[in-house]
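I hope you will forgive my troubling you with a question about protein structure. Here, with my thanks, is the record as I have it:
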Amino acid sequence: MNKKFFIDKKTHDVLFCLLILLIPMVQFAVFYIGVNFNSFVMAFQRYEENAETNLGRYVFNGFENFGKMFTQIKNEGVFLLALKNSFLSFALITLVGIVFALVFSMYIFKKLPGAGVFKVLLFAPSILSAVVTVTMYKYFVEGAVPAMFGLKEGLLANSSTKLGAIIFFNIWIGFGTQILMYSGAMNGIDPSISEAAKLDGANPFVEFFKIILPLIFPTIQTFVVTGVASIFVNQINLVAFEGLNTQGRYMTVGYYLFKNTEAATQYEYPLLATYGISLTLIAAPLTLLVRFLMDKFGPSVE
């Protein structure tokens, strides 16, 4: 007599959920935990190759790579320029971007004339490929802008305006997600709160700074904190603009590491891993500090 094994519905549901999560969990374990653990270990190793067998291996070398990293930073100077550009681009893209995104979000929230058109135009870059938006932008700043203002060369061709033009592009393409999130948070505010403020004589500026801003501040905080966390990995679409041919004066840390990793050999991976560990030791406490300060000094809903 054949025995049939029955699984109760609760166990069946749990097994189904576990199987659904199995693939992303394995991917996370291999491509995030595994890769980062290997990078950490590699920062304390060097690559040695046996001349007779042509076989190589990584051997422990203590903190030797950290000394090499500081020597390279001192001698090259490119990394320091990239570091400056990373903080500059963060300040402009995050802070300026948030200000303008809040202005447009408020305009859309109030359903003023043309709000729907603004919403579509500002969100469109977020759903298009980066290569497509970069190509359109390059045609605009290299062709249309010089023709309109009588310039001899485009904004990207001019060394004095190139970095600013690239940063402006990143501010523009960042509007879509921010406006979607800010306007969504604003729409979640109880209309009776705004109505009560109007009855008390609050003008639009008072309403924004005293009511709307405190209520959507957690959303703003999310963008600022994630922006701080990604300071050293953001390459501000330089690869889309110029591939791996960007000059050192325009690089960010994210682009610098990407370019060097692309051309690295087994001998250079440990040094790049050392950069990663060192930057993580800076970015992690900085991110936590910014979050703490925003929690402590940010606007309160009380």
Remarks:
- Residues 134 and 241 are 6 Å apart (CA to CA).
- The chain has a mean pLDDT of 87.
